[in-house]
Design brief:
This protein is of the alpha/beta class. It has 13 helices and 13 strands. Strand 2, helix 7 and strand 3 form a beta-alpha-beta unit. The longest helix has 38 residues. InterPro entries: Glutamate_decarboxylase (IPR010107), PyrdxlP-dep_de-COase (IPR002129), PyrdxlP-dep_Trfase (IPR015424), PyrdxlP-dep_Trfase_major (IPR015421).
C-alpha cells in the first residue's frame, strides 16, 4: 500500500477550515508515527493510525483467543454460509427499532415470528404475539415480566404487599436468577436428586402457591442436554388447579430445544399444544443456526402479554407494537434468521439437527467405550452429552481432562453440578452445525492420546475446583 504523509500546513484559513471539517476517518495519518510508538491500551491515543496498522494491532491480539469452531462449551452458532455473511454485512447499519425507516426488515421480523408460531403449534399463528430479542436472556426477561404483570393484575388487591415467586429447576440458565433478582421475584428452585438432573413436575407443583407467577420448564438443560418433561409439568399443574383453584402458567425456555424438538421429536408435546404453556423463547443464535445476537419470544395470544407492557411506534403511518428491554440493535441477525428459514425449510433444519444428534450419539458411545468414563446423557435429546470419570478412576478427574484437551485447542468445559449434586463433576460436549464427523474423530484421537499420561498421574492435579473452569453457564 502507498504511504501518506501527515497533514501539511495550510496556506490560508479557508483551506484549513475545509480540512478540519472532514470526518477524521477520512483524513491522512502519518504511518511513521504508528511505526515508532505503540498506542496506549487504556486511553485514547493522541493521534490517528493508518487503518491497516489499527487492523493489524487488533487482529494480532485476537489471535490469542480460542478457535470458535473448536469451542465445544458454547451452544452459539460458529459457522454460517458466506451468503448469510454478505446479507449481515449489508444490514448491520440498520437499526431494528426504526420500523418506519426500515419497513422490509420489520416485515422479515414479523414473518419469522409467524413461522415460529406455526412451528410451535400456536392455536392461531395469525394472532400469536412475538418479537425478536438480542438473545434468549432478553427473551426470558420479557417472558418473566409478562408473567409477573399478569399475576399482579389478577392480584391487584394484594400486590405489592404480597411477594411474587417463580418456580424452576436448579438447572436453569443464570438469566432466570438475574430476572428474579432484578424484578424482585422470589426464586423457588427444585434441587437435583440422584440421577434426576432437572426439574421434577410434582416437586414443582408443590412449591406453587397463590403468589406463584409461573413455572419455567427447560427444553434442553445446559447442564446435560436433557429435556424437562413439560407435558408432565403441565399435568401436575392441572391437578393442582383441580385441587386448589390455582391457575399457574408455564413458560418454556426453549433456548436450544425449541429449534431441535420440532424437527427431530415431532411427537413430543411441549409447546402451545399444551393450553397451560403461555410463552416460549428460543435462541436464533443457537440451534436456530444464526451468528450471535438474536433470540425470539412468543406468547400464545395477545391475552398472554399484558397490553400495558407493549409500546407502539409509527410503522408506515400505521401502528407497530414493540416489546423489548433493548432499544437500538442491528437488523443483521434478524435478516440472517429469515435467510436461514428460507434456505433450509423444515427438511433442511431436520437434516442439520439430525446430523448433529447422530454425531453426538456416536461420539458419546465411543467415549464410553474407552472405559474411563461414565455417560450421564447420550446426546439423544439435545445434540449434547455429559460424562464423568468412572468410579475406579482415581489418578485424574474431569478438570484434568479439560485442561489437557485445551492444550490441543479443544474447549471442553468441566464443572460441578448444583444442589443437591455438588459431589458430581462432569465434562460436556455440545455438537453444533459445523462440528463434523471428522472433527469428532480428531477430538476422540486427542482424548485417547492423553489417557495414558493421565492414568500415570499420582492423583488429580487441580485442587481449587472453583478456579478450574471458566464455565459459568
Amino acid at each position: 500500500m502507498s504511504l501518506h504523509k501527515g497533514p501539511r500546513p495550510s496556506r490560508d484559513d479557508d483551506r484549513d477550515r475545509r480540512r478540519l471539517a472532514v470526518n477524521p476517518f477520512h483524513a491522512a495519518a502519518n504511518p511513521l508515527g504508528g511505526m515508532t510508538e505503540a498506542p496506549p491500551a487504556h486511553r485514547l491515543p493522541d493521534s490517528p493510525l493508518p487503518p491497516e496498522s489499527a487492523y493489524r494491532l487488533v487482529h494480532d491480539e485476537l489471535m490469542l483467543d480460542g478457535n470458535a469452531r473448536l469451542n465445544l462449551a458454547t451452544f452459539v452458532t460458529t459457522w454460517m454460509e458466506p451468503q448469510a455473511g454478505v446479507l449481515m454485512s449489508e444490514c448491520r447499519d440498520k437499526n431494528m427499532i426504526d420500523k418506519d425507516e426500515y419497513p422490509r426488515t420489520a416485515e422479515l421480523e414479523r414473518r419469522c415470528v409467524a413461522m415460529l408460531a406455526d412451528l410451535w403449534h400456536a392455536p392461531d399463528p395469525a394472532t400469536a404475539v412475538g418479537c425478536s430479542t438480542t438473545g434468549s436472556s432478553e427473551a426470558c426477561m420479557l417472558a418473566g415480566m409478562a408473567l409477573k404483570r399478569r399475576w399482579a393484575l389478577r392480584n391487584a388487591d394484594r400486590y405489592p404487599g404480597a411477594r411474587p415467586n417463580l418456580v424452576m429447576g436448579v438447572n436453569v440458565q443464570v438469566c432466570w436468577e438475574k430476572f428474579c433478582n432484578f424484578w424482585e421475584v422470589e426464586a423457588r428452585q427444585v434441587p437435583m436428586e440422584g440421577d434426576r438432573f432437572h426439574l421434577d413436575p410434582q416437586a414443582a407443583a408443590e412449591l406453587c402457591d397463590e403468589n406463584t407467577i409461573g413455572v419455567v420448564g427447560i427444553l434442553g438443560s445446559t447442564f446435560d442436554g436433557s429435556y424437562e418433561p413439560v407435558a408432565d409439568l403441565c399435568a401436575a399443574l392441572d391437578a393442582l388447579q383441580e385441587r386448589t383453584g390455582l391457575d399457574v402458567p408455564v413458560h418454556v425456555d426453549g433456548a436450544s430445544g425449541a429449534m431441535v424438538a420440532p424437527f427431530l421429536d415431532e411427537d413430543l408435546v411441549w409447546d402451545f399444544r399444551l393450553p397451560r404453556v403461555a410463552s416460549i423463547n428460543t435462541s436464533g443464535h443457537k440451534y436456530g443456526l444464526v451468528y450471535p445476537g438474536v433470540g425470539w419470544a412468543l406468547w400464545r395470544d395477545a391475552e398472554a402479554l399484558p397490553e400495558e407492557l407493549v409500546f407502539r411506534v409509527n410503522y408506515l403511518g400505521g401502528d407497530m407494537p414493540t416489546f423489548a428491554l433493548n432499544f437500538s440493535r442491528p437488523g443483521a441477525q434478524v435478516v440472517a434468521q429469515y435467510y436461514t428459514f428460507l434456505r433450509l425449510g423444515r427438511e433442511g433444519y431436520r437434516a442439520v439437527q439430525q446430523s448433529a444428534r447422530d454425531i453426538a450419539r456416536g461420539l458419546a458411545e465411543r467415549v464410553e467405550a474407552l472405559g474411563d468414563f461414565r455417560l450421564l446423557t447420550r446426546g439423544d435429546q439435545l445434540p449434547v452429552f455429559a460424562f464423568t470419570t468412572a468410579d475406579d478412576v482415581t489418578a485424574y478427574d474431569v478438570f484434568d481432562v479439560s485442561r489437557r484437551l485445551r492444550e490441543g485447542g479443544w474447549l471442553v468445559p468441566a464443572y460441578t453440578f448444583p444442589p443437591h449434586r455438588e459431589d458430581l463433576s462432569v465434562l460436556r460436549v455440545v455438537c453444533r452445525n459445523g462440528f463434523s464427523t471428522d472433527m469428532a474423530d480428531l477430538l476422540l484421537a486427542d482424548l485417547e492420546r492423553l489417557l495414558p499420561e493421565l492414568r500415570r498421574q499420582p492423583g488429580p492435579l487441580i485442587r481449587d475446583k472453583g478456579a478450574a473452569t471458566g464455565f459459568h453457564h
